[in-house]
Amino acid sequence: MVSITAKAKQRVVDTGESLVSTLFEYAKKVPFVRDRIAAEYEKMMKDIAGQVRPYAADYPTYTELPEQGRDREAILEEMRNFHGLEADRWKDGYVSGAVYHGDREHTSFLDQAYAIHSQTNPLHSDLWPSVTKYEAEIVAMTADMLGAKKAGSGPENEVCGAVSSGGTESILLAMKTYRDWAKAEKGITSPNMVIPNTAHAAFYKAAEFFDIQLRKVTVGADCRADVKGMKRAMDRNTICLVGSAPAFPHGLVDPIEELAELAQKRKVGMHTDACLGGFVLPWARELGYPVPPFDFAVPGVTSMSADTHKYGYAAKGTSVVLYRSKALRRHQWYTVTDWPGGIYFSPTFAGSRPGGLSAACWASMQAMGREGYLDATKRIVETGQKIRRGIDAILGLKVLGDPLWVVSFASGEEGLNIYEVLDAMGKKHWNLNGLHRPPCVHLAVTLRHTKEGVAERFLDDLREAVEHTRANPGEGSGMAPIYGLAGTIPARGAVSDLLEMYLDAVYDL
Ligand SMILES: Cc1ncc(COP(=O)(O)O)c(C=O)c1O
């Protein structure tokens, strides 16, 4: 029987919902209810376990070290087999986001850059000054792209930053930095952060990890941050505001200028999360697309995150966190002087880090250059616009807001369940992102979708998926019931339990 653990709840201010969640937590403790729920979970987990371990039948499972080391070529052969089984879907453009470039020439170039530096560790900057050079230049090039020269003069406008392992780490670092800054500079010991509810889950995570109260404000009807609502949510203990450029769910840029003005007036931090758009929006603007101000050119923006491992086309495992001043960045650094292991200092959460990934990131930026990013963005946004127009033309669907290349769409027809459309697309090999509040689906267009015929295939498949769903309502399997369940308040605790069990399953052999 699967056991249910009650997890300490995050300090979340989210009107009207916490009472029902609490009741659910209590209900789980009543033996009869608990047993019924556990039995249901067990059934669901059986299905999930099969999906997590598709190779279990055909390949050996290692729960112990092999007695003798295996032949290296045999190991590589096994890995190539897995790669072969997994690569087609993203290579052929069936996946939203995930692999942003993926051309063989580019990836093998990144692999070579990694291989040259695979033994390096930026923790030892004395041993590998090459990697320190790469990281400093990654930060400088990213800052330059994101308005550093327009930030103003003086040490308070000297944009700087650090390389992290990904968007989530960049965001966690920025939020920890604000927490420590607010404590040191303002004496705030019960901090809160005010975010639009569409800000990435990494902000929710930061709040939980760093004990910052999360005040999430539901976005307006246009799916963008509600500035007035966020203003109302602030108080003396607010340490920062957050806006996205664009936000993951609907691909829309929040009103950063207004948020930054508010933050500046109230003397709090303002983080623009450009993990998704940092390497697209500057070039889209240059191409003449309407891109609202979002970077350090906006007074009041005090930090940003931009992911090199997405549209920077680096290998997975790097991102950049930027600050308007070195004084602010100081609150990110970690130093310890009384550890028996010696004097120790590190810029991010990790200690040792993979210098090879920074090398590959630097190599990607060098190989792309301004022209390369401009050209890639042109292809991506043109494809995004084609897809957006195509979706708008499909009866029963509607595009949310005015997106450039991350296009989200919802059902515009009574009785048409968008999650069943998502499932129908899954049966046609597509791997799209299911979203909720409101129920919708998105496609983040990458260079994979700019290949000939991919956008057309997507639209044809989507049209068929909608027609199929309309003709066979209620047929949805897969994610449809999970999203349906998550949308009903009492079931949210159950979905959370299921997700934790899924994480267990990932490591269960
Ligand atoms: C807007 C935004 N912020 C943050 C992240 C988190 O990035 P990562 O998955 O690299 O941690 C994402 C990921 O898609 C994102 O879209």
Structure explained in plain terms:
By secondary structure, the protein is an alpha/beta fold. Among the domains are: 12-52 and 485-507, no CATH class; 129-365, Type I PLP-dependent aspartate aminotransferase-like (Major domain) (Aspartate Aminotransferase, domain 2). Helices cover 45% and strands 12% of the residues. It has 16 helices and 14 strands. It has helices at residues 18-29, 31-52, 72-91, 104-116, 129-145, 167-186, 201-210, 227-233, 256-265, 281-286, 326-329, 355-392, 418-427, 454-471, 479-486, 492-507, and strands spanning 12-13, 160-164, 192-196, 213-217, 238-244, 269-274, 303-306, 319-323, 334-336, 344-346, 397-399, 406-411, 433-435, 440-444. The strands form 3 sheets. It has an 8-stranded mixed sheet, with helices on both faces. A 4-stranded antiparallel sheet has the order 11-12-14-13. Strand 13 and strand 14 (440-444) form a beta hairpin. The longest helix has 38 residues, at 355-392. The protein starts with 11 loop residues before the first strand and ends with a helix. Mean pLDDT is 92; it is low at 1-16. The structure holds pyridoxal-5'-phosphate (PLP). Keywords: Endoplasmic reticulum, Lipid metabolism, Lyase, Membrane, Pyridoxal phosphate, Sphingolipid metabolism, Transmembrane, Transmembrane helix. One of its GO terms (biological process) is sphingolipid catabolic process. It is a single-pass membrane protein. InterPro entries: GrpII_AminoAcid_Decarb, PyrdxlP-dep_de-COase, PyrdxlP-dep_Trfase, PyrdxlP-dep_Trfase_major, PyrdxlP-dep_Trfase_small. It is found in: Endoplasmic reticulum membrane.
